C-alpha cells in the first residue's frame, strides 16, 4: 500500500476505532453469518482476518477455529479490538499490525483468509489478492465481503464522491466482474457468491467517521443537488429536506486457491 494511502487510512481509523467496535453493522448481520457458514464448511485450522477493524469477524471465527490471527494497519484499532476481544473471552486471538500488500507470513500458512468491509480502502486489489493467494494453502479459501461497485458510471462516480467526502481514505468499490478478474489473475477461483442489501442510517454513518458539522452540511448539499437518478440508485430517503438513510449492496465471495 502506498505510504500516502497508508497514512490516510491510519489517520481516519485511529480516532474512530471505538465507533467500529460498537457499530451494529460490523458486529452482526446476515453478511457475517454467510461468511461464517462458508468458513464452517471449510473447517480451516488457521484463519487470518485482514483489516480486522473492531475484530468482530476474527472473534466470530475464533468460536470454531483453533488459531486465528487478526491484522490491521492501524495500531489504535488493534488496541481497541484487543480490549473488545478480551472482554468477549477471546484473548487467545493473535493481533498483528501489518499491510495487506506485504503479509508477514510464509507461503501456505492459512487454510482461510477473511476480509470484511475493507477492500474499498485498498489502492489496488491485485497486489493484496496476490498476497492472500501466497499465504493460503492449496485449496484454501478467501472469504471476502465489500461494498459492491455500481455498474452505471454516473451512479458509481456519485457514490464514490459521497464516500470520499465522508471518509478520505475511501478509494472505490469494485464491481463484481472486476473482483472475479482480479481473483483469477491472483490464482483464486470464485466458488460461491452472494449479494445483499444494506440500509445505512445517515446520522450514524456520518458520525462514525467524525465528520464535522460543516463537512456534513456540505455533503448533504452535494447529495441533495445530485441528479435524481443518482439518489434513486441508492434509494436515498429524504424527509423535510434532510437525508435520513440510503442503501448500498454488499458483495460476498468465496474464492479458492488453485
Please, could you describe this protein's structure?
By secondary structure, the chain is an alpha/beta fold. The chain has one domain (3-150, 169-199, 247-257): Rossmann fold (3-Layer(aba) Sandwich), CATH 3.40.50. It is 44% helix and 26% strand. It contains 12 helices and 8 strands. The chain has helices at residues 3-13, 17-21, 24-27, 30-42, 56-62, 75-87, 125-135, 153-166, 176-185, 202-207, 213-225, 228-233, and strands at 46-50, 67-72, 94-97, 110-116, 136-147, 188-201, 237-239, 242-257. Strands 1, 2, 3, 4, 5, 6, 7 and 8 form an 8-stranded mixed beta sheet that branches. A hairpin with a 2-residue loop joins strand 7 and strand 8. It is globular, with a radius of gyration of 18 Å. The two termini are 25 Å apart. The model has no long low-confidence stretch (mean pLDDT 91).
Largest sheet: 8 strands, mixed
The helix tally amounts to 12
N/C terminus separation: 25 Å
Helical amount: 40-55%
CATH secondary-structure class: Alpha Beta
Give the overall pLDDT as a whole number: 91
Beta-strand content: 25-35%
CATH superfamily caption: Vaccinia Virus protein VP39
| Helix/strand class | alpha/beta
CATH architecture label: 3-Layer(aba) Sandwich
How many discrete structural domains?
A: 1
Task: Briefly summarize what is shown.
This protein is of the alpha/beta class and 258 residues long.
Features:
258 residues; Rossmann fold; eight-stranded mixed β-sheet; 26% strand; alpha/beta
Amino acid at each position: 500500500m502506498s505510504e500516502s494511502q497508508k497514512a490516510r487510512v491510519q489517520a481516519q481509523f485511529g480516532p474512530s476505532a471505538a465507533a467500529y467496535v460498537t457499530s451494529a453493522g460490523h458486529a452482526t448481520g446476515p453478511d457475517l453469518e454467510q461468511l461464517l457458514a462458508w468458513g464452517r464448511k471449510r473447517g480451516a485450522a488457521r484463519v487470518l482476518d485482514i483489516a480486522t477493524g473492531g475484530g468482530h469477524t476474527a472473534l466470530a471465527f475464533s468460536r470454531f477455529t483453533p488459531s486465528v490471527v487478526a491484522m490491521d494497519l492501524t495500531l489504535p484499532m488493534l488496541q481497541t479490538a484487543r480490549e473488545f476481544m478480551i472482554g468477549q473471552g477471546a484473548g487467545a486471538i493473535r493481533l498483528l499490525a501489518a499491510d495487506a500488500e506485504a503479509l508477514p507470513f510464509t507461503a501456505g500458512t492459512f487454510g482461510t483468509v477473511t476480509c470484511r468491509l475493507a477492500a474499498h480502502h485498498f489502492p489496488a486489489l491485485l497486489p493484496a489478492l496476490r498476497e492472500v493467494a501466497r499465504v493460503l494453502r492449496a485449496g484454501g479459501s478467501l472469504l471476502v465481503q465489500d461494498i459492491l461497485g455500481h455498474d452505471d458510471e454516473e451512479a458509481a462516480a456519485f457514490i464514490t464522491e459521497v464516500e470520499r467526502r465522508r471518509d478520505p481514505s475511501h478509494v472505490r468499490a469494485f464491481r463484481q466482474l472486476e473482483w472475479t478478474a482480479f481473483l483469477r489473475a491472483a490464482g483464486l477461483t470464485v466458488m460461491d457468491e452472494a449479494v445483499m442489501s444494506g440500509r445505512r442510517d445517515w446520522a450514524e454513518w456520518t458520525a462514525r467517521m467524525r465528520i464535522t458539522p460543516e463537512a456534513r452540511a456540505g455533503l448533504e448539499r452535494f447529495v441533495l443537488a445530485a441528479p435524481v437518478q443518482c439518489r434513486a440508485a441508492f434509494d436515498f430517503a429524504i424527509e423535510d429536506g434532510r437525508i435520513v438513510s440510503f442503501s448500498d449492496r454488499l458483495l460476498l465471495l468465496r474464492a479458492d486457491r488453485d
